[in-house]
């Protein structure tokens, strides 16, 4: 496959079988009719949607649409019959992220996150270094890493509340208000 800016952007259309892309359409030749024909030819279907009705909102609020979606093959559905696409909350972008899952419960541990403001706060890096170096954990390397990250996560949460207050709760309340407005707008067009 060609690479570089001069080669143009390629759109890979999602049927993969044994590591092969079935069709590649150069950006200059793309047309919506070609895309629809590709969908029909390969019998792709959209996963059931959970959550919001729209995945894109114009910043001024005058337009919204379902731009983002998962299209899958029948083979996919046979392998993962309970697959659904979940529309996530809109945060920074005008798009809502969507996640495909084939189960209703997500048993994975929550991700380890950092907030940029922490890195600017005097003493944060020293706190992390001191805490990390003083944790006493047992096991193999991966087990030690997992346990230290878990301990560090708890210590950082405590430190964050003492320095910044409960930002997560404030964010949660604001995000709930945005979600209510998005739902209300989907039902009766607020503008």
Description of the structure:
The protein is of the alpha+beta class. It contains 6 helices and 11 strands. It folds into 3 domains: 1-42, no CATH class; 43-104, no CATH class; 109-191, no CATH class. The strands form 5 sheets. Strands 6-10-11 form a 3-stranded mixed beta sheet, with no helix packed on it. Strands 1-4 form a two-stranded antiparallel ribbon. Strand 2 and strand 3 form a beta hairpin. The chain starts with 9 loop residues before the first strand and ends with a helix. Residues 1-22 have low confidence and may be disordered.
Q: Shape, please? A: extended
Give average pLDDT, whole number: 78
Would you list the SSEs in sequence order as H and E? EEEEHEEEEEHEEHHHH
The share of residues in helices is: 40-55%
Q: Main sheet, how many strands, which sense, barrel? A: 3 strands, mixed
Strand tally = 11
Number of helix segments?
Answer: 6
**What is the CA-atom radius of gyration, in angstroms?**
23 Å
Q: How does the helix and strand content classify structurally?
A: alpha+beta
Instruction: Kindly report the spatial arrangement of strands forming the biggest sheet.
Output: 6-10-11
Low-confidence stretches: 1-22
Strand content: 5-15%
Ends apart, CA distance between termini: 47 Å
Could you give the topology of this structure?
Layout: E1 10-12, E2 16-17, E3 20-21, E4 24-26, H1 32-41, E5 45-46, E6 49-50, E7 56-57, E8 64-65, E9 71-72, H2 74-79, E10 84-87, E11 98-101, H3 116-120, H4 124-134, H5 141-164, H6 167-188
Parallel strand pairs: 6-10
Antiparallel strand pairs: 1-4, 2-3, 5-9, 7-8, 10-11
């Amino acid at each position: 496959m060609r690479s570089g800016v001069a080669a143009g952007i390629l759109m890979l259309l999602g049927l993969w079988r044994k590591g092969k892309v079935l069709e590649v359409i150069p950006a200059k030749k793309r047309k919506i009719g070609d895309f629809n024909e590709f969908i029909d030819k390969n019998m792709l279907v959209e996963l059931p949607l959970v959550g919001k009705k729209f995945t894109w909102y114009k910043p001024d609020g005058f337009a919204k649409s379902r731009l983002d979606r998962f299209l899958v093959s029948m083979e996919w559905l046979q392998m993962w019959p309970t697959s659904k696409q979940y529309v996530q909350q809109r945060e920074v972008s005008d798009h809502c992220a969507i996640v495909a899952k084939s189960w209703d419960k997500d048993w994975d541990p929550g991700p380890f996150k950092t907030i940029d403001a922490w890195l600017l706060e005097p003493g944060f890096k020293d706190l992390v270094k001191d805490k990390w170096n003083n944790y006493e954990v047992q096991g193999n390397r991966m087990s030690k890493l997992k346990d230290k990250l878990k301990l560090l996560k708890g210590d950082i949460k405590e430190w964050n509340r003492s320095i910044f207050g409960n930002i997560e709760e404030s964010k949660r309340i604001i995000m709930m208000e945005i979600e209510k407005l998005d739902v209300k707008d989907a039902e009766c067009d607020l503008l």
